[in-house]
Amino acid sequence: AQSVTQLGSHVSVSEGALVLLRCNYSSSVPPYLFWYVQYPNQGLQLLLKYTTGATLVKGINGFEAEFKKSETSFHLTKPSAHMSDAAEYFCAVRISSGSARQLTFGSGTQLTVLP
Amino acid sequence: DAGITQSPRHKVTETGTPVTLRCHQTENHRYMYWYRQDPGHGLRLIHYSYGVKDTDKGEVSDGYSVSRSKTEDFLLTLESATSSQTSVYFCAISEGASGYTFGSGTRLTVV
User: Cα(A66)–Cα(B70) distance, rounded to whole angstroms?
Assistant: First the structure.
């Protein structure tokens, strides 16, 4: 079974500072990895995903993440935070084979951007 | 936006009553999922479907049942609502390796 750990339930950064949200996963087979963002009272929106190929993945709104197999990590970064980035972020893992295609989510990280 | 809608968006119900939430898609995706979202727990899978009449349990399925009689509709039923089922419920659809597309959620309060 796969699992996801997001380190830090709350992260605060100043506007213009680097954003780093941490995600570690466990999976017995090659994983597919995802980051989702949730704005207040809305559903989840896909930021980026890793399936195969290049390990550095670029997503929407200037975010990117790097798949590091040796560290079982998929941390999310953005060079310069904007006030509009304030939201909750979820890392998720899915095994790359099998019929269920279930996503397993981390518990989320609430990002606050300070002026 | 992908064609996925949830209804109702908000509902308040009394303890012990049955409640049905509806998820409707226009994408003809094979896979559909019901999750609940609670603070500190992220999203947890309740049930999922991999085709018409083909469903299976997720990690928090107790007290819930589902049905999928048509590709486009996936119903979640709380057989006898309890206060612990107060939550935000999300439906999602999936096809291929593209991850999920989520509905806007249903906020359910059991009083």
Answer: 39
